[in-house]
Design brief:
- There is one protein chain.
- The chain is an alpha/beta fold.
- Helix content is 43%, strand content 18%.
- The strands form two sheets. Strands 3, 4, 5, 6, 7, 8, 9 and 10 form an eight-stranded mixed β-sheet that branches.
- The chain is globular, with a radius of gyration of 24 Å.
- The two termini are 23 Å apart.
- The N terminus is likely disordered.
Amino acid sequence: MSISLFASRKATVSPRWSTSVLGLALAAAAAGLSLAPTAAQAADALQCELDRPMRFGGMNWESNLVLVEVERFIVKHGYGCDSEVLPTETLPALAALQRGDLDINSEVWLNSTLEPWTQAEASGKVKRIGDIYMGGEAWFIPKYTAERLPDLKKAADLPKYWEAFKDPEEPSKGRFYGCPAGWGCEVVSTNLFKALGLEKTFTLLSPGTGATQKAALTAAYQRKENVAFYYWYPTPLVGSMDLVKLELPPYDAAKQQCLTDPNCDNPQATDYPENPVFTAVTTQFTEQAPQLTAFLSKVKVPLDVMNQTMAYMEENEAEPQPTAQWFLQNKQDVWTQWLPADVTERVKAAL
């Protein structure tokens, strides 16, 4: 998408204005008076550090989509910059960032991309510039499933209960919902699935998109069906469901590093660590746009605030743009800390 969702409309003079009103306006101009500029006009008068639209990576999960729209609104009205969102997935986004096809990846989940990110950073073409929040990942079952199967505590115990999770397309096995196809967490889910020896008793379903995964899990939950799945948080889904985590072996950094490698020869099970979520940009962007880089490096959202934002999105069935507007209106104590005073005032005026 090359058109900003927050683009302002140009002011036009209505043909229905009377000659007397026009006359007053002309008289005011002749007297040296002026009308205060609108927020949109003020933004248009700003000179962006870039002479082209900023290119954001548009991942297809809610927190990223909302954060991108928050940042786009700020760069539009605070810094006078146009922007566009280029839809992508986790691993292709890292490659696009290294090529310079993207300027900004607003949410990189480190533990899902540890090996490819390490390689990308080593190339010198990309930089990690700011930590946003500490996310989490887990394998879940609904609480009602845990009550039906009280001895199912560990992910390694799933083979004993495969019949409770029967795959309708392959009834001789259970179904486990992994990470959406193409995402970095798909690599970890696949390797962990193998490490736990689930291949003989379960199928691993990697939904085509995050929306497909969410729809399938929501439908199963509403029908009170047994379902075992991977998910991450903060997300509207985890916040809205009563879930129980399946236990995984204690966290081991070396094992986790191998799980993030698509070519891991000997995957071994380990729990997910806390997952730092950070902003990444191209090295060229930091050189061309130091003020924008300074802003993006300060973007940080407390986890409870992100949970509230995701809850608002879920409860109101809101799209990313109005959710971003809600955040900007209601969480000014958070985002004003990212910006200089003059930029803050321009953004507030645009709201």
